[in-house]
Amino acid sequence: MSNLLLEGPGRHVSCLGSKLMVDLAKDLREPRRTVLAPHQQSVRERLTQEFMHKAPLRQWAAAGSLMQQDVRLLQWLEQLAGLLQPGYLALSLVAERLNNVLERAGGDALRHSQLETLCAQFHQRVARAQAQFQQRDAAAEAAQHCEQVLAHWRSGRYNAWSPAGRCYVALEELRWGAFGEAVYLGPTKEREALLSRCRQMACDQLAASVNASARTRHFYHHWLTTPAAPGLMNYKDTLSWLGAWSDKERQPVAWSVTQTWQSVALGMPRLCSAARLASAMVDEVFAS
Q: What is the rounded average pLDDT of the residues 29-43?
């Protein structure tokens, strides 16, 4: 199996690029602040290098460390947005962070000018995404996206993760795509209907993945054990990086499912059913 994350754990996970964009933007707001565990930082750096070598980004591959120079990091964000065509959530989070940096920016004129230009570009992208959302049948697109992701789960594309990890990856895919866009931009009733449907589908598939009913309770190890497979640590580390936003107090289930190198959170039920796990993860992921 390839040692590349985008050909291993990332080959069926389209949200990795969007998550990476937001992480990189955070470096501008909080320079040189280490907020990731070493293995999570390693995943991010490896993904950065892999995306850098995807055309048309080769020009930056030999430019040194992007993490140390804000001007090049801004250029990289612009290039990455063009390559990935990210959705509303990624665009809005990057725009928010760029705006926060711009409000207290000073010093280097080139950096300030480029920051101002890029901030305006991302706000324009956000406005365009919002306008396009109003012109489409967003509910139908969200339902189709949900069915697509669940089909990937059912077909075994996420099987290298633990049963609960598969559910989490599916929810992240939904959050960063058309489903999440409908949840974040749609009216309250539509949002509630989408999330209710998502809970039911996630619950049913999680239960089916362990040949149990939705209400059958198992000890948490049954849900969190990752199957032995080539590249096991790449899969576990990628899951940990995807869930690095979670907090063991505020999102105890998502944190326990993704940060398996730590002890499970106190709020993680020791005996739990697919219904309880799926419902909790949907609530935690889409409230973030």
A: 78
**Phi (first) and psi of residue 273, to 5 degrees:** -100, 170
Segment 112-136, tens digit of pLDDT: 788 889 999 999 999 999 999 999 9
CA distances from 137 to 162, 186, 192, 198 (A): 34, 11, 17, 18
- Residue 260: both structure tokens together: 């398996």
- Tell me the whole-structure pTM to 2 decimals: 0.93
- What is the DSSP secondary-structure string of the chain? --S-TTTTTTTT-TTHHHHHHHHHHHHHHSTT---S-HHHHHHHHHHHHHHHTSTT-GGGTTS--GGG-HHHHHHHHHHHHHHH---HHHHHHHHHHHHHHHHT--S-HHHHHHHHHHHHHHHHHHHHHHHHHHHS-HHHHHHHHHHHHHHHHHTTTTTTS-HHHHHHHHHHHHHHSHHHHHHHHS-HHHHHHHHHHHHHHHHHHHHHHTT--TT-EEEHHHHHPPPP-TTHHHHHHHHHHHTTT--TTTSHHHHHHH-TTSPPPTTS-SEEEHHHHHHHHHHHHHH-
Residues in the chain: 288
- Give yes or no for residue 56 having a pLDDT over 70: no
Average pLDDT for 147-175: 97
